[in-house]
Design brief:
Number of helices: 3
Distance between the termini: 47 Å
Strand content: under 5%
Keywords: Membrane, Transmembrane, Transmembrane helix
């Protein structure tokens, strides 16, 4: 899933095929797939940023303030 979340256009192409069957319209399917794929990519990026942030905060708090 990590590889697909980092490549939203490829994920949208994969999602468009089943959505094409569901909506019976390729234009609507590709639009919905693009929106959902970029939303998934954005959420994954925010998740990885939040996972890395506590380590940076701990490192900054251990450094004494300079005068």
């Amino acid at each position: 899933m990590k590889q697909l979340a980092s490549k939203p256009f490829f994920l949208a192409l994969l999602m468009s095929v089943p959505l094409w069957i569901v909506f019976n319209n390729f234009i609507v399917a590709i639009m919905v797939a693009l929106l959902v794929a970029f939303l998934i990519s954005m959420c994954y990026s925010l998740y990885t940023i939040k996972q890395g942030k506590p380590a940076a905060d701990e490192r900054d708090s251990s450094i004494p303030p300079s005068k």
